[in-house]
């Protein structure tokens, strides 16, 4: 008999507690406003929900467009087993980004204003439209998975015909708003600590999103292999890991050149908390993973590969929080630390995202072996209905 009630485990209990706490924080947020639930102020209006839920969430979802570009636009077939999980991760990531934005907006019921009240000169306007359009594109990229599940072959055939233009559109939209998120901070040069401010912020945001997004594919593949007791595409993930750290190292070299050209090298030798945090994000997110994954022996060890992916993601997370929070602190003249309600909402969104991924992956042909089985079953049923079996 199929078990209806999930088995109670330690991590499931923790997840339920996180969601319950997040729901209570949600109640406070939408009944008492930002003042009752956050440590934000007029002097410091962007905190954890922008830094983590938006900037980190959008960046880590970049694995979706990167893998799509590799497999469908450049037609490198061998990476196709990674495409569907990456698309699902990106799709869920963007939905959670939109939910996170609803928490942060002072008047969340006005979120639709960007559709009607156009302001093409605003970077926020561009980001809002790109996120809306790219979320729609991700839905269309995910749609064939659902159509396969329900065996709607005419719609599936149509989606396959329009698949390449959709994916090209997705790559363009993602490229635009990944870099535009960095552009948001170009308007506050006087408020940002110089180690994180640069005219090349849009470039840094794009490069770091591509590098960290690729490692997110490794992270998701490793956890999926454990959760669903399936194999792992070790050779493909090993190469993805190598590409990601090479991209991140190139970004770091560009940053060093930028420091030299803008006379900021001396800041690297000015010892204070900001410099230490900068070193931490570079060491954890770039230099140590590069030193590990450049070695084939380490790269082909799944545990080291997974550990390196966690380091890159942690460094990326730290970088986005440093840009959006740490670097703003000295200019704002006040200290900010997120309230317990801000933290609980963020943890709840991450937990809900992981639950959603698990439920969808369990019930739809997301992984390569399932796609192969579904296709074979689909073809068998067709032959059966035509009397050829």
UniProtKB/TrEMBL annotation:
Coiled coil: none annotated. It is a multi-pass membrane protein. One of its GO terms (biological process) is anaerobic respiration. Pfam families: NrfD. Keywords: Cell membrane, Membrane, Transmembrane, Transmembrane helix. One of its GO terms (cellular component) is plasma membrane. PANTHER family: FORMATE DEHYDROGENASE, NITRATE-INDUCIBLE, CYTOCHROME B556 FDN SUBUNIT (PTHR30074), NI_FE-HYDROGENASE 2 B-TYPE CYTOCHROME SUBUNIT-RELATED (PTHR30074:SF4). This is Polysulfide reductase. It comes from Ignavibacterium album (strain DSM 19864 / JCM 16511 / NBRC 101810 / Mat9-16).
């Amino acid at each position: 008999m199929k078990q209806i009630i999930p088995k109670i485990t330690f991590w499931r209990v923790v997840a339920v507690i996180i969601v319950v706490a997040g729901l209570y924080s949600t109640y406070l947020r939408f009944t008492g406003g930002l003042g009752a639930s956050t440590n934000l102020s007029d002097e410091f209006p962007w905190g954890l929900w922008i830094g983590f839920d938006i900037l980190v969430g959008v960046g880590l979802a970049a694995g979706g467009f990167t893998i799509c570009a590799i497999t469908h636009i450049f037609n490198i077939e061998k990476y196709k087993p990674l495409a569907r999980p990456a698309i699902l991760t990106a799709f869920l990531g963007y939905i959670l980004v939109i939910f996170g934005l609803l928490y942060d907006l002072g008047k969340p019921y006005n979120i639709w204003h960007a559709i009607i009240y156009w302001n093409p000169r605003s970077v926020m306007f561009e980001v809002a439209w790109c996120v809306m359009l790219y979320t729609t594109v991700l839905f269309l990229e995910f749609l064939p998975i659902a159509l396969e599940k329900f065996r709607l072959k005419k719609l599936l055939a149509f989606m396959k015909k329009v698949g390449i233009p959709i994916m090209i559109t997705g790559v363009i939209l993602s490229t635009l708003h990944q870099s535009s998120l960095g552009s948001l901070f170009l308007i506050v040069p006087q408020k940002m600590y110089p180690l994180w401010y640069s005219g090349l912020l849009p470039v840094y945001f794009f490069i770091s999103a591509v590098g960290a997004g690729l490692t997110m594919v490794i992270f998701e593949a490793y956890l999926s292999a454990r959760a669903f007791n399936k194999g792992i595409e070790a050779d493909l993930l090993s190469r993805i890991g190598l590409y990601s750290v090479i991209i991140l190292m190139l970004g770091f070299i560009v940053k060093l050149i930028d420091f030299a050209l803008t006379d900021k090298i001396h800041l690297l030798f000015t010892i204070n908390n900001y410099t230490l945090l900068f070193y931490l994000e570079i060491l954890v997110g770039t230099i140590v993973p590069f030193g590990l994954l450049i070695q084939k022996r380490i790269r082909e060890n799944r545990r080291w590969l997974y550990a390196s992916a966690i380091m890159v993601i942690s460094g990326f997370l730290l970088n986005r929080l440093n840009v959006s929070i740490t670097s703003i602190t000295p200019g704002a003249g006040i200290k900010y630390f997120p309230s317990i309600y801000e933290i609980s909402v963020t943890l709840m969104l991450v937990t809900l995202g992981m639950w959603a991924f698990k439920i969808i992956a369990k019930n739809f042909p997301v992984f390569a072996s399932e796609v192969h089985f579904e296709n074979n079953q689909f073809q068998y049923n067709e032959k059966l209905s035509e009397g050829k079996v």
